[in-house]
Amino acid sequence: MTERTSYKLFCGLRIYPAVAGLLGCAVFLIVLEIAVRSDLIPPTVIPRPSDFIAGMFTLHRKVDFEGAIAITFGMTALALFFELLVALPIGYFLAKNKVFRSAYEGWLAALFAAPVFLLYPLFMVIFGRNFITLVVMGFIPGVIPMTLQTMQGFLSVSRTLVKVGHSYGLTEGQIFRKIMIPAAVPGIFTGFRLAVMYTLINIIGIEYLVDIGGLGRIVSDRYSRFDITGTYAAIIAVIAVSMLFQWLIAKIERSIRPV
Q1: 191 and which of 122, 146, 153, 209 could share a cystine (Cβ 3.0–4.6 Å)?
Q2: 3-class secondary structure, 171
Q3: How confident is the model at residue 104 (pLDDT cuts 50, 70, 90)?
Q4: How far is Cα 169 from Cα 143, in angstroms, rounded to an integer?
Q5: Alpha carbons 120 and 72: distance in angstroms, whole number
Q6: Which of 69, 88, 66 minimizes the C-alpha distance to 77?
Q7: 248/40 Cα distance (integer angstroms)
Q8: pLDDT at residue 9 tops 50
């Protein structure tokens, strides 16, 4: 049974993944609304979903909500741009050079598991309390998984495809552009998605701890003022920014390697 057929069988309708996801979120919010209204969940812990969803449209009266979204999105995008510039050539280099791959792959994996976030006081001293610190703290945890996945993506390219390219007289540059890159795209974009998660998490964390701005700062500000509704509204905005990045990545991947 194919995936699409299973959707048709569900209630006799063709339910697409996006619609199913939205329905699941709607059901969850309705159940949560009922639980809070009936005092099964204290409203001081979780406000009614209707309140914090409405708070997303009214929070701009208390804080610069749109500006905070722009800062978080912009700093994350900038960190991802630098990660791409570094991870793609290094990942390809490690894939092509077995000696360097054997020497440094374990170090990169260990560094990926290390709590790099704890180094933020060091970068605060070096760069100061500014956006450079945000970009650097987002860059470090994101560039490592992107590099490792890029390396794995190039390693997974079938040697048969490369040999076919040589048989057609393609140059090394043409083989790289027309064979290596398209074949390695799934691995590269897996690293890209991991990089988005770790980059955004670290940038939000620094914004929360340090008064630099962004959505993390709004979460901290609203929480310190006991504005639970505003806190959850800012958290929902963070989730929306993450979803926007994931949607953009999916669009870019389909444009490079249509499936």
Answers
A1: 146
A2: coil
A3: confident
A4: 35
A5: 17
A6: 69
A7: 39
A8: no
Q: Which of 45, 51, 48 is nearest to 32 (CA)?
A: 48
Distances (CA, A) of 145 to 10, 87, 121, 244, 257: 37, 9, 23, 20, 21
In the chain, DSSP assigns E strands to: none
Instruction: Write phi, then psi, for 46 (nearest 5 degrees).
Output: -130, 120
Q: Residue 62: CB partners within 8 Å, gap ≥ 6?
A: 227, 230
- Tokens, residue 15: 């339910």
pLDDT at position 17 over 80? no
Token pair in block for residue 179? 């064979």
**pTM attached to this predicted model:** 0.80
**What does the block give as tokens for 129?**
């309390």
26: region left, alpha or beta (phi > 0 left; psi from -120 to 50 alpha): alpha
In the structure encoding, which two tokens stand for residue 212, read together? Answer: 């630099």
User: Is 7 within 8 Å of 15 (Cβ atoms)?
Assistant: yes
C-alpha 9: how far from its chain's center? 33
Distances (CA, A) of 37 to 23, 31, 58, 217: 21, 10, 21, 29
Neighbours of 129 (CB within 10 A): 12
Are 241 and 69 spatial neighbours (Cβ–Cβ below 8 Å)? yes
